Structures are given as structure tokens and as C-alpha cells.
Amino acid sequence: MLIVNDLKVEVEGKSILKGLTLEVGAGEVHAIMGPNGSGKSTLSHVLSGREGYEVTGGSITLDGEDLLALAPEERAWKGLFLGFQYPVAIPGLNSSVFMREAVNALRRSRGEDEYDAMDFLAVAREKMKLLEMDESFMTRAVNDGFSGGEKKRNEIYQMALLEPRLAILDEIDSGLDIDALRIVSEGINKLRSPERSVIMVTHYQRLLDYVQPDYVHVLSGGEIVRSGGRDLALELESSGYGWLEKEPAAV
Amino acid sequence: MANSETVERFQQQYAENKSRLPGDAQVRDQAIAQLVADGLPTRKTERWRYTRLNKVLKQDFAPAQLVDPAVERAGNEQAKRLAEQVAEADGAVLVFDQGYFRPEVSRLDGLGDIEFKPLSDALAAGDISLPTAKVGADRAFDQLNTALVADGAWLNLPAGRHRPVTLLVLAGDGADKSAYWRLVVSAQSQSEAEISIAYAGGGADTYHSNNYIDVDLAPGARLMLSQLQRQGDQAFHVAALRASLARDSSFTAHLLALGADISRDDVDITLADQGAHAEVNGLQLTNDRQHADLHLNLEHASPHCTSAVSHHGLFGGHGKGVFNGRVHVHPGADGTDSQMSSNNLLLSDQAEINTKPELEIYADDVKCSHGATVGDLNPDELFYLRSRGIGEAQARALLLNAFAAASFSSLTGQWGQFVATDVSKKMEQLSHE
Questions:
Q1: pLDDT below 70 — which residues of chain A?
Q2: Contact call for A88 and B380, based on CB within 8 A
Q3: How buried is residue A229: exposed, middle or buried, by Cβ count under 10 Å (0-12/13-18/19+)?
């Protein structure tokens, strides 16, 4: 479904991704782990179309279509979703207005009728239950004054509403206490399906106790240096990332 | 001085109208004498540096007279829409035309135990008197108001929570007229109220709307006062707001400038005793060749008072904005906490903003912050919306609306909706230029 082939990316002339290759099939959950500065967030941003990154080589295709040729909104219409590491607060923009616009934009792109306020409310309520969210959330401004946990829950709530085929969750676990991590993880697990693929980018293996991945990849120095099953994450937990520096060529 | 002819004209107008003006004539005499002594603002008047009045002062605006109550309003869409609001608003609605109270279209039954009198009655009965305005050419329009104002409102708010009061201040039904209006609010100890004012005027007429609001908050009083300015395209609008805050009182002001050719708001707030809190939210939306000016002066005269000023400006076309926010912390006003921000978006190359927060601190133990930004939309916010499938143009529109909405999101009920509708209409004009 998603094929990243020999991807090379620069930021302000500095090489960040140096030939990254990754293949994600339908329904698979992949974890991408790695130390700070390994290029994890760059990968998330390039996949979702954020400005400021120059792709100098390689390709990204989603079901054979060139993803790099598409604007961020067009990628969303194709079923791509990015869960942000640092969701931005937008004072003055009502959460339910925002999400109704987003859901309707996707529906329009598929040639479906838009939801009116009532239709949307019904759908939104159902998804909010999934994330144990209070209804007062609907009337608040987007992420404005939200706690760290609320922001991340909001990301998964948006994922639930937008029903992507490929969700990229960029350090969705960072800054969460155990309770918030449980709610967020349960939300992700409920959204797993044979048609929906997930890429979880994380620094810590803790998240993988809750959301069990099919594959684990280690990203270091802009390349995937090891891939394996869930065992690899456990191994990383005991040994840390230190070994990467000692044997950078290990694959 | 260059504008002495204009001053003479105002002097003449005062002489002609003096006999019909209510209340003590002495203060009015003083005001016109002060105007003659100080003159009108020129390009050399510091507080009017960025707002030029040459064009405006050439015009001969005669003070509006009390017109026939049965005056036909057909064709004046704004007035019609406002009149509809009379039926919809929560609480009392007071309507003023050309500065004069219009009981026949007002609704007083929502006032509860708020005491209301038309200003003319309150002045005639001696309930209140016109205070002497500050001297100086920069205060010329205050002097004019004091000299020539014939009507307006006096609201006396007793202790307890009150239903909202909406005041519709209509001007500009006749071209080349000046409408003078004044609101005096006495918020008694432990009173809690919301006062909303909509200024509106007709179509393409050239007119002058001169308004003065005087608020006095007794200990523990809480007042939210919002002003929505949507004057006609050729109007010259000035509005002064003076507020004095006693111990533990709280005052929130919203100043939303959408209309007029040239508009000027002068806000003077004095935090006179401990524990007082003042909040000011200003929004300026200009396009075409509109010019909006907000000058604000906050006097932290006592210890342990807090203030928060937030200004938002959105300028399209050849629209201009001026923001000057001064915070003055007096000696001994320890424990002062004051925040001020001015955030501006320029939507065209010709649009302009002059923004200047000023801090003058003469006390030791204070917490003051200020900041100003001028720029375009935040790219992180834009990307966030686009990553959710919202197209770029729509994402921009949503963010522009959100930017503006931040300054009035605390307004609720019918009034809040009314403001939101008006702002989003204006936003459409702005983003399509």
C-alpha cells in the first residue's frame, strides 16, 4: 500500500534522511523507533506534505500514486492522516466547526453528501465515547488550553472521525501519563482494522506494550538500520540506543 | 492655527444651540472655551500623528436636532436589521437616533431594577453632571461632546446581577450632521451587568458620530461593556471611554471597529484602588480606504491591580490601523500585573498598521509584559488544517475568522451571535480584496 523507496530528504541544505526504504501493507501496524535526531519526525512530515523539506531522491507511493506530487489536503483525501507530536492550538476556532469542515472536505472529495450540523453531532458523539471525551470539548477552541493528554486524545479522536487508510502517529505517546496513555492506546486499538495501516513513530517502547505492532524498525542516522518483529522493541528497551553508535553498519 | 475656522464654526454652533441644551451651562461654556484655547488635533498633535483629519474637518457638520419620531426609515437596511434585534435581544433595548433617545422603538421592560433615564432628563434633574474633560488638542472631541451633547443615557446599576442591556446608537440618517451621544454608567457596589452598544449609520452619507462613555465602578462591581462600531462607509466616528475602578471591581471592555471611514477610540481606564481588574479586547477590521485608531491609556494607580489588553487587527485593501496602548504604573502600585498584546495581519501590500505598546513603570514589584506582532497567518496552523483535508483557501478563511474571533469569544447569547455574524460578513469583504 505505502512504499517508501530510497528516500533522501534535506532541511536547509542538511541531509536528514539518507536513503530510507519502507513498505507498509494494508492493515499492518509498524513502529518506527530511534534516538533523537534520527529523522523520525522528518519522515512523518514528509509523508504528510509539510513545507520546509526538500526531497532530493527516492519516491513515496500510496497504492501506486506519487504522494510527493500531492498537496497536504489531497493526501488527506487519499486517506492519509498525521497525528501530530505537538498539535497546534488555534484560539478562536471552535473544535466542532473545525472537524465538521474536515469531515465534509473528505466527504466532498469522495463525492458524498456533506453532513449538516445534526448529522455531524451524532457521528462526533459516537467517536468521542471511544476516547472517553467530555462533550464540553465540542465547544472549546481547537487545542486551546488543552492539557498534553487532551491534545493527544484529540488527535486520535480526529483520526476516528476521518477514518484514514494510513495513519502516521508522530510520538503520540510523548508527554502522556499512564492513564492518558491507556486511553489513547485503547483508542488506537479500537481503530485497528484490516483496511487501516498505522505507522507509529516513537522514542519509547512503552507505547508498544499497549499497541502491539506487527513490525518494528530502528531509524538511525537517516536510515532504517534494523527491522524485525515485536522482540526488537524489547531488545531495544534493555540495551537502549547506545549500540547504534558502536556498530552503525549493523543491519 | 490652521483649523481655527473649524473651531469658530463649532463655537457658532454652540452659541446657536446653547439654549436648548439640558443641565448646567457652565461646564459646557468651559468646554467650548477650552476647545477654542487648545484647537483641534493637527499633524503635530502626538496622539493623532497617524490619524489625519484634514479631510474630515473641512466638512461642516451641523449638530443633529431631535427629528420627527415618525421619521421614515425605509431603505436603511442597517437600521432595519438593528430594529429586528430589538425583538430578539435578551433584556432591555434602548434605541437612540442621532443621539436622541427613542422610547417608541425601545424596550424597557427588561431593565428589572436598573435605573434608566435619558441623559437629557438626568442632566435636567441634576442626577448627574457633565465632568470636565482633560485639556489639550488631543481631547478636542471630548470637549465638543461636553459642549454639544443633548441626549444619551444614564444607567444606575444597583447591587445584584442584572439582565443584559443593549443600546442601539443610530446616526447618519441626514448627511453632514453631527450626532452627539453620551452614556453615563454608575455601577454600584456588588452589581454585575453586561452592556452592549451597537453604533450604526446609513449608507453613503457623510456624517460625524461623537460618543462619550463614562463608567464608574464602585467596590466589587463587575461590568462587561462591549461596543460594535459599524458606521457607514463615509462616517467619521469618535468614541471616548472613561472608566474608574474602585476596590476589587472588574471591568471588561470589547471594542470592535468594523465600519466608518475614519474611526477613533480613546480609552482611559484608572485602576484606582486595590484588587481592581481591567480587561480590554480590541478588534480592528478595515479594508477599502478605511482607517481605525485605538488609543488606550491604563493607569495603575494602586497596588495589586491586574490588567490584560489584547488587540487584534486585520487589514485588507488600503485599510489602515493604529494601536497605541500605554500602561502607566504609578509609584507605590506594587503587585501590579499587566499584560498587553497587539497582533496584526496585513492581507494586502497596501494595508498598514502602526502599533505601539508603551510601558511606564514607577513601582518596583510589578509584572508587566507587552508584545506586538505583524505578519501573515501562522504556517503551522495552516498546515494543521490542510493535513485534515481542508483546502488552502478554506483553511485561510477559517484561520482569519478564528484570529478575529479570539477578541470577542467571551460574548455570549444573542449579542454574541449578532457580533459574530457581523464580523464574518466583514471578513468576507476583507479576504476578497
A1: 245-251
A2: yes
A3: exposed
CB-CB contact of A8 with A210 (8 Å): no
d(CA A68, CA A3): 12
| Distance in angstroms (rounded) separating the CA atoms of residues B208 and B222 | 32
Give the ipTM of the model, two decimals please.
Answer: 0.95
Contacts of B326 (CB under 8 A, 6+ apart): B296, B297, B298, B357, B358, B359, B360
Per-residue model confidence as pLDDT tens digits over B3-34:
788 999 999 999 999 999 999 999 999 999 99
- Amino acid identity of residue B16, one-letter, is E
Burial class (CB in 10 A: 0-12, 13-18, 19+), B19: exposed
Number of H helices, E strands in chain B: 9, 21
CB A121 within 8 A of CB A115: no
Q: What are the residues facing A196 on neighbouring strands? A: A193
Whether A92 and B394 lie within 8 Å, measured CB to CB: no
Q: For residues B312 and B345, what is the distance between their CA atoms, to the nearest angstrom?
A: 8
User: Confidence class of residue B81 from pLDDT cuts 50, 70 and 90?
Assistant: low
Residue B72 pLDDT grade (very low, low, confident, very high; cuts 50, 70, 90):
very low
Q: Is the pLDDT of residue B100 over 60?
A: yes
- Residues of chain A with Cβ-Cβ distance to B405 below 8 Å are 92-93
Coil, helix or strand at residue B67: coil
Please check the confidence at residue B71 and state whether its pLDDT lies above 50: no
Location of C-alpha cell 497596588: B303
Distance from chain centroid for Cα B95: 17
Contacts of B394 in chain A (CB under 8 A): 101, 105
CA–CA gap between residue A136 and residue A132 (Å, rounded): 12
Chain B interface includes A73 (CB < 8 A): yes
The number of beta carbons lying within 10 Å of the beta carbon of residue A242 is 8
Q: Are A166 and A2 in contact (CB under 8 A)?
A: yes
Integer angstrom CA distances of residue A60 from A1, A41, A202, A221: 10, 16, 21, 19
Residue of chain A with shortest Cα separation from B420 = A92
Q: What is the DSSP letter of B129?
A: -
Interchain pair A49, B387: CB under 8 A: yes
Taking a C-beta distance cutoff of 8 angstroms, is the pair B41, B138 a contact?
yes
CB B51 within 8 A of CB B322: yes
Q: What is the model's pLDDT at position B73?
A: 44
Question: In whole angstroms, what is the distance from residue A238 CA to residue B102 CA?
Answer: 81
Average pLDDT over residues B304-313: 97
Structure pTM? 0.83
Cell for B66?
Answer: 431631535
- DSSP assignment of A4-40 equals EEEEEEEETTEEEEEEEEEEE-TT-EEEEE--TTSSH
Residue A76 to residue B392, Cβ atoms within 8 A: no
Q: Using CA atoms, how far apart are residues B246 and B249, in angstroms rounded to an integer?
A: 6
Residue at B218: amino acid letter: A
The three-class DSSP label of residue B209 is: strand
SS3 (DSSP) at B25:
helix
